[in-house]
Design goal:
384 residues, alpha/beta, TIM Barrel, two-stranded antiparallel ribbon, MANB/E
Length: 384
């Protein structure tokens, strides 16, 4: 490991256990039947976020800059020697496509998630969900073509039964993903992200607050209580349009329906050459502060700088922001490296001009990569 932080296994030092006092009793998943491994992941992320942050990359091991489908490969590993601690995948291919395509997608996803679990990494799941009412429009909102679907998916809606069928498919898939130890692989499920914008069909301009909250609550309750999915942690992540805690919570479904609060923010971190780190830090602080009050996990669920033209972005922008205000964030995830595009990538690959700065980011004791992690799926681990 690059940092002498953790001693795995037994002996030598005292075993760290988690408090069961009143203050700590809130720090548990909203699913009372969550698997032991899912509970351990939740509590270990809480503990680690006090002094560290896990680094994540979307689709890191599925494909990268100029390659796809190679075993045990990621651009981050090629550069640093370690996979990211958090690997992002997407359930976008589990509906709205021909059944044979869906089955092939499931097999690829199952292998990817299980491999991450077996290596000791963490999986987070986005859901770029095809509009069930107007499937031809995909997950983006298309004016004059897309239908405002949220009202049709909630109980009483015209497509409610179809939505339940989709959720059953998602849930049965989740219950099929097991590691070599025979245990279900925990996942941080992050549906309906960036809902405060208008680019997705579930966005704020296309449904009322009550409709969105109803959709969120039904989604969680159906997966958890009807389909009996017990290896999910549920993450709530708007885009960065808010300025206050009240703004942030405007469509929040309630503490009993959320395990993790997060934010997606590219705009304040260099998109189109614009930087507003003061605003970006303040928005992260709102998330972190609320999580601490509510006993939730917090995360920087998406960010990044496309093509990374700023070669010191990793330390002078991202790391600087993360270390400010003594925030507690479980992970930060940057977006994907496209296979074909020469410019659509968010993590360095060998030879990229930001590699030297990324290695400083990697070496900082605050950041954790996969090889730095303790056993995230056990309730006890040791610290030097």
């Amino acid at each position: 490991m690059k940092k002498t932080l953790f001693l795995l296994g037994c002996g030598l030092l005292g075993t760290l256990t988690f408090s069961s006092n009143a203050a700590g009793s809130r720090n548990k998943p909203i699913d009372n039947k969550a698997t032991k491994e899912t509970v351990a992941l939740y509590r270990n992320l809480h503990k680690l976020s006090k002094k560290h942050i896990l680094f994540g990359h979307q689709h890191a091991t599925e494909y990268g800059h100029g390659w796809s489908g190679d075993p045990d490969r990621s651009d981050v590993k090629l550069v640093s020697g370690s996979h990211p601690a958090v690997i992002g995948v997407d359930f976008s291919g589990l509906s709205g496509r021909p059944e044979p395509v869906i089955e092939r997608t499931k097999e690829t996803l199952r292998r990817s998630i299980a491999d991450t679990y077996d290596r000791g990494g963490v999986t987070t799941v986005a859901w770029h969900f095809t509009n069930p009412v107007t499937e031809q429009t995909g997950f983006y909102w298309k004016d004059s073509v897309s239908a405002p679907a949220v009202a049709n998916l909630v109980p009483g809606g015209s497509h409610h039964e179809k939505y339940k069928q989709i959720l059953r498919s998602v849930g049965e898939f989740a219950k099929s993903v097991k590691g070599r130890d025979g245990k279900l692989a925990p996942m941080i499920f992050r549906p309906y992200h960036e809902f405060d914008g208008g680019w997705f069909w579930w966005g704020k301009p296309h449904c009322t607050r009550d409709e969105f909250v109803s959709l969120w609550r039904f989604t969680v309750s159906y997966l958890r209580d009807s389909v009996q999915v017990h290896n999910f942690l549920y993450a709530f992540s708007p885009d960065c349009t808010y300025k206050t805690e009240a703004d942030y919570l405007e469509r929040y479904p309630g503490d009993e329906w959320v395990d993790m609060v997060g934010v997606d923010n590219y705009a304040d971190f260099g998109r189109d050459g614009r930087y507003n780190l003061t605003a970006g830090i303040q928005k992260l602080k709102i998330v972190s502060d609320y999580a601490r009050k509510a006993g939730k996990l917090a995360a920087f669920t998406e960010t990044g700088l496309e093509s990374i033209p700023n070669t010191s972005w990793w330390t002078e922008t991202l790391l600087k922001a993360l270390k400010t205000e003594k925030m507690r964030l479980a992970y930060v995830l940057v977006w994907r490296n496209d296979v074909r595009s020469p410019t659509h990538y968010y993590a360095p690959y060998p030879g990229h001009t930001s590699v030297a700065d990324f290695m400083k980011f990697y070496a900082d004791p605050y950041t954790l990569f996969e090889t730095d992690l303790p056993n995230m799926y056990r309730r006890r681990w040791l610290i030097f």
